[in-house]
């Protein structure tokens, strides 16, 4: 833990800097870019029936969107108000009225005609619902009947046949903590959260490399660092408020480097709406792009280090911070030998980057006295995601970019609640304040007052697969309790996921709106429980940002959904009904009492018990984790880890695909048109040269397919690395392989090889033999490479 405290927000420069302007044409007229003013007017119109409440949420609450830590309209990074379209888009989830009864109780096939966007717009869930097997519509249920039914089934099954899942949809630390405690109280370790499919490799890798499970630095460290590197992260699109920090960094002379297969327009230049100069003329953000192949980052980083070690041979200290390495790092010689053995030609093929460009980046970092490395799902959502992040940590440790101002490792979060999920113990490998092992188990048992189950719980992907196990299997999933989440739109191979969901005896959906997963059948019954938003919770709630800021969000006066309940209270009520004799162990007088227990169970959160007023905040761990290079490991030192080059499994002539986000928040889509490149949700981003090789013209219908499924879309030319394609998520999920998980962190694989053809050719020859032959060729070539 660090001893230095965060120093608070700083001011932006008052004078403009025309050198950073994207265009001298005001508001970027004529350019493809977000229309912030138009979008804001639309949000106001959508919330016109509840504008006063919407304004109170914006000015009093903590953002339930991205994890940048905006409390009200202010944060700890920059002085002045901040707001972004992501937060504005989410407003309606909190202000809309309940679903009309005639719609809610319509025939299930009528509801199934709607996608999740249309379902979301229907309104809030008003009261508990049930739909038993064979029934054509949802029926109203009382809270007592619903919870008693769930409790009765929990008593009947083996705890290993029970599982909980919590998404990041505005869920507070209090709810994560209560769910973690209740799951173990009920005897199950099958509890997981949304981090499993986004940043679980970040925590795993950082733990093994430097002993921490969170960002080591702050957003303030972006502003003034020599180099700010975004690795597989399009922060301008997914965390729009961050563009204000990037603007401030540029004004301080920071170089911004983006490493991504696609030259993302959002990172090239952005019109920051809350800065007059930028709103008018835009701001050039990235100084350079390195368009690495999908999955080629490890090779790229090997090339960087290989050049560093060569520089060291000629002039010691020219590339490696030798003092930092000698005092704070293990494994230097092992890593050096491993990297030296790498072949330049292989590194170029794997990364898609020339040796000259790798050396150029290596020299830029070597000349920088400080640096912050930021990454997101472009690095984590691989079957080798943990190795990706450990490789980034290797670079930081070799340069000493850790534990001091303007330096650090930052897995940038997309949700304002998910950082706290594992820290509260809502994770099969975690407990509040520690891991599910060693001395953390008796420590938590003492606070909770009961013994924990000792068997290892499953990650959510495996949990879902367990629904297909034989009826008498001890891990056959029979009751699945999920707070938010839509696995039909977040997991690979949706048809397989549907099969899993519909094989569960009872599914409980605790949520604020309907989505497509809610409408899937179940073996016995689907039960829907209406939850409160974070702004409705009595006693308020807390959330933890990317930079470990724990913010208090108060209860905000406004209209209420009459039967909606606080999420943490629902969990505790359920546990009390399952085991009334021990009910006192899982009861809390109020939210303040719950936070007091969190402070005892999780030492890092000592201070959360004092948060009770609007704007209250503290940062656990201080400004910088691993301060002065001292890591929370057994010997206080970081560990360099030799990482092998991954096999990308892309046969000659095929493409490798990955997913990207458009105008959306997680799987919640707000527009079918990407505001940064005008792409449709079914457009396939492909380089002009690659398209020409396949005889494909822009806008032409194409089909992508492999052994998992097929995707029908249209070619859209883009500045993307050769041999790579980008598709929108979750539309591309039918192409992604099921049951493929990263071995250390359990994140699903979200990248794969495909065949791309003109739709005319595909359909003209689409008989069974033709398609199966091509797929068989693809699978055989992959098998041969393995």
Automatic annotation (TrEMBL):
Residues 124-576 form the Molybdopterin oxidoreductase domain. Signal peptide: none annotated. Keywords: Iron, Iron-sulfur, Metal-binding. InterPro entries: Asp_de-COase-like_dom_sf, MoPterin_dinucl-bd_dom, Mopterin_OxRdtase, Mopterin_OxRdtse_a_bac, Prok_molybdopt-oxidoreductase. Residues 656-753 form the Molybdopterin dinucleotide-binding domain. Pfam families: Molybdopterin, Molydop_binding. The keyword Metal-binding applies. SUPFAM superfamilies: ADC-like, Formate dehydrogenase/DMSO reductase, domains 1-3. PANTHER family: PROTEIN YDEP, RESPIRATORY NITRATE REDUCTASE. This is FdhF/YdeP family oxidoreductase.
């Amino acid at each position: 833990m660090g001893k230095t405290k965060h120093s608070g927000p700083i001011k932006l420069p008052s004078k403009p800097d025309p050198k950073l302007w994207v265009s001298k044409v005001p508001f970027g007229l004529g350019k493809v870019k977000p229309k912030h003013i138009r979008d804001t007017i639309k949000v106001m119109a959508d919330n016109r029936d509840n504008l006063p409440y919407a304004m109170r949420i914006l000015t009093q609450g903590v953002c339930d969107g991205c994890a940048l830590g905006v409390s009200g309209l202010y944060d700890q990074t920059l002085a002045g108000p901040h707001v972004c379209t992501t937060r504005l888009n989410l407003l309606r989830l909190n202000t809309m009225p309940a679903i009309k009864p005639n719609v809610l109780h319509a025939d299930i096939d009528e509801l199934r005609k709607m996608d999740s966007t249309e379902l979301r717009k229907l309104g809030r869930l008003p009261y508990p619902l049930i739909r038993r097997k064979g029934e054509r519509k949802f029926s109203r249920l009382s809270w007592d009947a619903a919870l008693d039914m769930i409790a009765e089934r929990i008593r009947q099954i083996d705890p290993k046949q029970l599982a909980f899942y919590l998404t990041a949809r505005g869920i507070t630390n209090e709810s994560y903590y209560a769910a973690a405690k209740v799951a173990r109280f009920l005897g199950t370790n099958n509890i997981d959260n949304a981090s499993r499919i986004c940043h679980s490799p970040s925590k795993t890798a950082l733990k093994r490399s430097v002993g921490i499970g969170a960002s080591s630095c702050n957003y303030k460290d972006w502003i003034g660092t020599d180099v700010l590197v975004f690795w597989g992260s399009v922060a301008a699109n997914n965390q729009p408020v961050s563009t204000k920090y990037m603007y401030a960094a540029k004004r301080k002379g920071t170089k911004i480097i983006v490493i991504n297969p696609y030259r993302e327009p959002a990172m090239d230049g952005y019109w920051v709406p809350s800065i007059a100069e930028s709103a008018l003329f835009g701001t050039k953000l990235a100084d350079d792009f390195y368009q690495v192949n999908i999955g080629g980052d490890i090779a790229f980083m090997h090339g960087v280090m290989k050049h560093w070690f060569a520089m060291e041979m000629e002039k010691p200290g020219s590339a490696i911070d030798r003092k930092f390495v000698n005092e704070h790092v293990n494994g230097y010689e092992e890593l050096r030998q491993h990297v030296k053995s790498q072949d330049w030609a292989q590194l170029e093929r794997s990364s898609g980057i020339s040796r000259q460009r790798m050396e150029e980046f290596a020299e830029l970092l070597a000349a920088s006295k400080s640096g912050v490395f930021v990454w997101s799902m472009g690095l984590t959502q691989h079957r080798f995601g943990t190795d990706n992040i450990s490789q980034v940590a290797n670079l930081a440790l070799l340069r000493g970019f850790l534990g001091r101002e303007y330096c650090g490792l930052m897995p940038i979060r997309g949700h304002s609640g998910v950082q706290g999920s594992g820290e509260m113990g809502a994770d099969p490998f975690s407990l509040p304040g520690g891991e599910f092992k060693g001395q953390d188990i008796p420590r938590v048992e003492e606070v909770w007052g009961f013994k924990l189950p000792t068997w290892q719980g499953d990650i959510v992907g495996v949990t879902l697969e367990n629904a297909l196990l034989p009826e008498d299997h001890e891990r056959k999933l029979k009751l699945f309790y999920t707070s938010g989440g839509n696995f039909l739109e977040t997991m690979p191979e949706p048809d397989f996921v549907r099969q899993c969901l519909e094989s569960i005896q009872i599914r409980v959906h605790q949520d604020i709106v309907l989505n497509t997963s809610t409408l899937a059948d179940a073996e016995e019954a689907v039960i829907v429980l209406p939850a409160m938003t974070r702004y409705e919770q009595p006693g308020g709630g807390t959330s933890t940002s990317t930079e470990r800021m724990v913010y208090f969000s108060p209860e905000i006066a406004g209209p209420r959904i009459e039967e909606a309940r606080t999420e943490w209270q629902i969990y505790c009520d359920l546990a009390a009904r399952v085991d009334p004799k021990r009910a006192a162990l899982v009861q809390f007088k109020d939210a303040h009492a719950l936070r007091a227990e969190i402070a005892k169970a999780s030492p890092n959160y000592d201070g959360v018990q004092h948060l009770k007023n609007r704007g209250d905040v503290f940062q656990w761990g201080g400004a910088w984790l691993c301060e002065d290079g001292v890591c929370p490991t057994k010997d206080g030192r970081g560990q360099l880890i030799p990482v092998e080059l991954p096999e990308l499994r892309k046969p000659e002539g095929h493409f490798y695909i990955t997913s990207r986000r458009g105008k959306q928040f997680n799987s919640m889509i707000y527009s079918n048109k990407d505001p940064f490149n005008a792409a449709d949700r079914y457009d396939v981003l492909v380089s002009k040269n690659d398209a020409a090789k396949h005889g494909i013209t822009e806008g032409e219908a194409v089909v992508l397919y492999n052994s998992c499924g097929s995707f029908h879309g249209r070619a859209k030319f883009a500045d993307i690395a050769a041999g790579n394609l980008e598709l929108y998520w979750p539309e591309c999920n039918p192409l992604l392989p099921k049951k493929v998980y990263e071995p250390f962190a359990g994140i699903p694989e979200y990248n794969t090889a495909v065949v791309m053809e003109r739709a005319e050719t595909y359909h003209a020859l689409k008989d069974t033999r033709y398609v199966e032959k091509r797929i068989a060729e693809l699978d055989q070539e992959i098998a041969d490479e393995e």
